[in-house]
């Protein structure tokens, strides 16, 4: 008899498995893939280059609690991600900053002048409801067309005017020359790999792992008291209210017989090409190797569910599933797919730590 059957071996499931096992609970964690780590899984390819199987995963957080928790399972390599965008035949920093504007317009503006320049371009949108509104409200139509519209259309197969404001709100605009993609307090990569971090996290004697396993094949055969589900919530309920839409990515990897391919970890292609971006892994991992590995990302509507699509009508369908989930005893839903929310890795960890505290409290109450 297991205390918890956990479906999904990514951040959401693994954090809960480790925390509950540490409390003396017996855990079985199941994943349909042949590896632990979920979408953060990384490994050495045939040439011995460390790559991220499901695209670049760059860790960043403002949460000291999350960083300290993960630090139990890994040392860190400091890394600040920088992204360039291919616009008007030039490579310029994104998020848009002082350097971006000066390079694009051949100017030499100061911070305060860039602020005035962007204000002169901006077109007031009230209320700000869509992704288009967010950008045009901040930087105007011209920069919106150059940097955001094409990229967003490729990524989501929707015009930004049809997407929730939260999508482009994730990308700020800066008037200084800070060219880091993220400004979080903690920015680093696991020193030995994400997979190694997960191995340590799941190495507790109370945790048993089953890979290559569809939970539906075993859920009725393996006795357990409670279930934690980190897969798509609509699939758990057999799509009773219809399928929740997701975007997926077709990753195309290449190993190149050269030391380095590009000048930054990631280069975005907002208007040209069918792919959205190219990432070169050695920037992220700091690995020394004579060859290099890159990945092209082609967004698609088919394949593994990666990105919940933030639109009002999708949220309404999710709310029906959420109501059903709340009425289902002894089953907890968490993670990006379990709660249909576009979370970063650190947010998933924080969510799982919060759920752990909730479960612990329930256990205390049951034992009183």
Helices and strands, in order, run as: EHEEEEHEEEHHHHEHEHEHEEEHEEHEHH
Quick one: CATH class of one domain? Alpha Beta
Using the 3D structure, state the CATH architecture of one domain. Answer: 3-Layer(aba) Sandwich
What name goes with the CATH superfamily of one domain? NAD(P)-binding Rossmann-like Domain
Helix content bin: 25-40%
Low-confidence stretches: none
Number of helices: 13
Determine the oligomeric state from the structure.
single chain
In whole angstroms, how far apart are the ends?
22 Å
Radius of gyration, CA atoms, in whole angstroms = 22 Å
Largest sheet: 7 strands, mixed
Percentage of β-strand residues: 15-25%
- The average pLDDT is 95
Shape: globular
**Strands across the major sheet, in which order?**
8-7-13-14-15-12-16
CATH topology of one domain: Rossmann fold
Structural class: alpha/beta
Query: Would you count the extended β strands for me?
Result: 17
């Amino acid at each position: 008899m297991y205390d918890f059957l956990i479906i999904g071996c990514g951040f959401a499931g693994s954090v809960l498995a480790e925390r509950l096992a540490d409390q003396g609970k017996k855990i079985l964690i199941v994943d349909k893939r042949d590896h632990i780590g979920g979408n953060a899984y990384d490994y050495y390819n045939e040439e011995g280059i460390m790559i991220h199987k499901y695209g670049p995963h760059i860790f960043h957080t403002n949460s000291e609690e999350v960083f300290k928790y993960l630090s139990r399972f890994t040392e860190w390599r400091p890394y600040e991600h920088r992204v360039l965008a291919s616009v008007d035949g030039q490579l310029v920093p994104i998020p848009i900053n002082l350097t971006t504007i000066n390079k694009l317009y051949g100017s030499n503006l100061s911070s305060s002048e860039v602020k005035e320049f962007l204000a002169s371009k901006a077109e007031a949108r009230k209320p700000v409801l869509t992704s288009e509104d967010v950008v045009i409200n901040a930087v105007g139509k011209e920069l919106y067309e150059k940097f955001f519209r094409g990229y967003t259309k490729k990524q989501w197969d929707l015009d930004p005017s049809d997407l929730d404001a939260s999508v482009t709100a994730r990308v700020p605009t800066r008037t200084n020359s800070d060219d880091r993609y993220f400004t979080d307090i903690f920015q680093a990569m696991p020193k030995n790999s994400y997979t190694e971090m997960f191995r340590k996290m799941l190495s507790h004697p109370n945790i048993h792992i089953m890979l290559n396993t569809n939970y539906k094949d075993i859920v009725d055969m393996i006795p357990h008291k409670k279930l934690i589900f980190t897969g798509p919530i609509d699939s758990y309920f057999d799509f009773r209210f219809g399928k929740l839409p997701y975007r997926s990515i077709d990753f195309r990897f290449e190993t190149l017989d050269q030391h380095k391919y590009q000048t930054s970890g990631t280069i975005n292609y907002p208007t040209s090409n069918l792919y959205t971006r190219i990432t070169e892994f050695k920037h992220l991992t700091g690995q020394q190797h004579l060859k290099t590995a890159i990945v092209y990302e082609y967004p698609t509507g088919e394949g593994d569910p990666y990105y919940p699509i933030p639109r009002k009508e999708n949220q309404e369908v999710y709310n029906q599933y959420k109501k059903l989930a709340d009425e289902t005893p002894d089953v907890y839903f968490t993670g990006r797919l379990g709660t249909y929310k576009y979370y970063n890795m650190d947010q998933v960890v924080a969510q799982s730590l919060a759920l752990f505290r909730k479960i612990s409290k329930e256990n205390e109450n049951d034992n009183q």
